[in-house]
Structures are given as structure tokens and as C-alpha cells.
């Protein structure tokens, strides 16, 4: 028997202080008592955005001015297939409240894991907590230049997620750079992931690990605790599937477009990128030829945002 398919529009409503609105499901409803992001099922012939506007007006008494796609999540339950079409809402009129008597609460992003959500909401929690831009550091031999360019990106570009990639350094130099990079990221409230063996977290208390695609494919399970971020580099469907199987929190998918360093590389292109992202089980950053000008286009095809070395790693002097 074919499962019924349910398309739901939902919103991460975020106010100016960064807190996110969540609502509690009625005790009598399916998965009653759990918390969720407000929204509801699409009516016949509605688009996701049309349903979102209607549902938030009915449930919360607010009128959406503008919203941006956040993530689309496919989830299988025993009796149904759910598609959660999730939007980020920052621009709206009115003050949200539970018009249908449901409890609602403004919650800090770091506190969201303390609330019980349906299993299908896990990728949404990750997407809400991640920024739209992911800086990958360049192979910079001069430590002073490295620190100067990183701090410029943190201060002027407001980068809040950094991957330390330093393949040319020996262990002692890598540890020294990792520790100084972590201190600088802490100063600006940014998260730092090490592109290194997961065992490095025993030596440097970074916020997580970013796996190379080669290391990703050797793993049978998640290699680090759930309270650390796990990212991975992917280049196709097989690696995206593997990332989901070992419970990665997010991935980069590349190369989307040609880059100055690889102008003749075979690229994914926007059309195939969108199809891959649609079936991914976690947030996806577009990588390869990306600049900040591509961020909205990337969001429009389902990506979390963009990852880049070149666009953020520059000297504006």
C-alpha cells in the first residue's frame, strides 16, 4: 500500500535578538506534547509560501512581509511521507501569540536542543543554528598574514562559521595555528571546525570537525560526540548518502561552478545541485566559484548558503 504524502509549510520565525519562535503540539494530536516550528499542511493548489502566509496568520496572528527558503526535509514515518517546506521569517507585522490556544515560546538557538521535537525536525534545528556563510581558510604560510585576514573576515564580513584547512603544516604548527584560530573565533562568537582527524578534538577544544570526502567514506558511524559539529565535503549523491548515514550535521557540495584555480573542472551546475540538495538529509553549503552575491540564489535552490575561500580570504587594504 502506497504511503500518503503530506506537504507541510513551516516557519523559523526569528526576532531581532536572534530568538526563534516554537509552538507546542496539542496533547491530542499526533506526536502531541512535542514542540515544533509553526505551520501546517498545504491546501489544494497552494504553494508553500502561500500556505505559510495563511497558516501563520491563522495560528499566530502575524502577517508575513517577506520570507526566505531555509530547508526542505523529507521524512518517512510508518504510515506517511512528510515533506517539511521550511522558511526563515524575519520580516512580519504583528506580535505572534497562540491564536488556537497553543503554547508558544521564544527560545535562544543554543537552547533549542533542550526541547523535544519530532524526529523530522532535526535537520531544521541544524539549519536554524547555522549561518548562511562558511569560511574555509587558505593555505597561508605567514602566521601574521593568516591572523590578519581571518580577523578581517570575522570583523568586517561577520563570518560566524570557520573551517581551519592547513594541509601543509606539521602537527606542532597545526596545533599552534588551531589554538590561535580558536581564540580569535571565540572573541568574535564564531564556531571553528578543524579539517583534520577527529582525534584532534582531544588536543584542541574546537567546535567540531570537517571531514574530507575520503575520510567520510571510510566511516561506519559518527566519529565525534553529538555536542560537537560534524561537517563533511561531498561531491555527489554517494557521499551525500554516506554523510546522512553517519549523521553529519551539514555538508559542503562541490564544485558547483568553475573557480580560478580549477577553470576546466567538471561542475555540478545549479540544476543538478538543486536535485541533490532536495534529497539530502542535512543542510548543504554550495562550494566552488561562490561569492556572497550567490547567497540568495543558493538559498533559492535549497542550500543553507555558500562556502568560500577566495571571497572571504582577502586583503582589503
Write up what this structure looks like.
- With 317 residues, the chain is an alpha/beta fold.
- It folds into two domains: 117 residues, Nucleoside Triphosphate Pyrophosphohydrolase; 176 residues, Aldolase class I (TIM Barrel), CATH 3.20.20.70.
- 26% of the residues lie in helices and 27% in strands.
- It has an eight-stranded parallel barrel with strand order 8-9-10-11-12-13-14-15. A four-stranded mixed sheet has the order 4-1-6-5, sandwiched between helices. Strands 3-2-7 form a three-stranded antiparallel sheet, with no helix packed on it.
- α3 runs parallel beside α4.
- 36% of the residues are buried.
Distance between the termini: 65 Å
Count all strands and give the number. Answer: 15
Q: Report the mean per-residue pLDDT as an integer.
A: 93
- CATH class of the largest domain, named Alpha Beta
Strand order of the largest sheet: 8-9-10-11-12-13-14-15
The main pleated sheet reads as: 8 strands, parallel, barrel
Classify the secondary structure makeup into a structural class. Answer: alpha/beta
Write the layout of secondary structure elements.
Layout: E1 4-13, E2 20-24, E3 35-36, E4 39-41, H1 48-60, E5 63-76, E6 80-93, E7 104-107, H2 122-129, E8 133-136, H3 143-156, E9 161-164, H4 171-188, E10 191-194, E11 208-211, H5 213-216, E12 229-234, H6 237-245, E13 250-253, H7 269-279, E14 284-287, H8 295-300, E15 305-308
Parallel strand pairs: 1-6, 8-9, 8-15, 9-10, 10-11, 11-12, 12-13, 13-14, 14-15
Antiparallel strand pairs: 1-4, 2-3, 2-7, 5-6
Helix pairs in contact: 3-4
Amino acid at each position: 500500500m502506497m504511503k500518503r504524502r503530506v506537504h507541510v509549510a513551516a516557519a523559523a520565525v526569528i526576532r531581532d535578538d536572534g530568538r526563534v519562535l516554537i509552538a507546542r503540539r496539542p496533547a491530542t494530536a499526533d506526536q502531541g506534547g512535542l514542540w515544533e516550528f509553526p505551520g501546517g499542511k498545504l491546501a489544494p493548489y497552494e504553494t508553500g509560501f502561500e500556505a505559510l502566509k495563511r497558516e501563520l496568520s491563522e495560528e499566530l496572528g502575524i502577517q508575513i512581509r517577506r520570507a526566505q527558503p531555509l530547508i526542505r526535509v523529507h521524512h518517512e514515518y510508518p504510515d506517511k511521507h512528510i515533506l517539511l517546506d521550511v522558511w526563515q521569517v524575519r520580516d512580519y507585522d504583528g506580535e505572534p501569540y497562540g491564536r488556537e490556544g497553543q503554547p508558544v515560546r521564544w527560545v535562544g538557538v543554543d537552547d533549542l536542543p533542550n526541547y523535544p521535537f519530532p524526529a523530522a525536525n532535526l535537520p531544521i534545528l541544524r539549519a536554524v543554528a547555522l549561518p548562511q556563510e562558511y569560511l574555509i581558510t587558505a593555505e597561508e604560510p605567514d602566521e601574521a598574514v593568516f591572523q590578519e585576514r581571518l580577523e578581517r573576515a570575522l570583523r568586517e564580513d561577520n563570518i560566524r562559521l570557520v573551517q581551519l584547512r592547513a594541509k601543509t603544516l606539521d602537527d606542532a604548527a597545526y596545533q599552534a595555528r588551531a589554538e590561535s584560530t580558536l581564540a580569535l573565533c571565540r572573541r568574535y562568537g564564531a564556531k571553528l571546525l578543524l579539517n583534520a582527524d577527529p582525534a584532534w578534538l582531544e588536543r584542541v577544544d574546537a567546535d567540531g570537525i570537517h571531514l574530507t570526502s575520503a575520510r567520510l567514506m571510510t566511516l561506519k558511524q559518527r566519529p565525534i560526540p553529538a555536542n560537537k559539529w560534524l561537517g563533511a565535503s561531498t561531491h555527489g549523491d554517494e557521499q551525500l548518502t554516506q554523510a546522512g548515514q553517519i549523521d553529519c550535521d551539514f555538508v559542503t557540495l562541490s564544485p558547483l561552478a568553475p573557480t580560478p584555480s580549477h577553470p576546466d573542472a567538471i561542475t555540478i551546475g545549479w540544476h543538478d545541485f538543486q536535485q541533490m540538495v532536495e534529497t539530502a538529509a542535512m543542510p548543504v553549503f554550495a562550494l566552488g566559484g561562490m561569492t556572497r552575491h550567490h547567497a540568495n540564489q543558493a538559498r533559492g535552490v535549497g542550500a543553507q548558503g555558500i562556502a568560500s575561500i577566495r571571497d572571504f580570504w582577502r586583503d582589503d587594504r
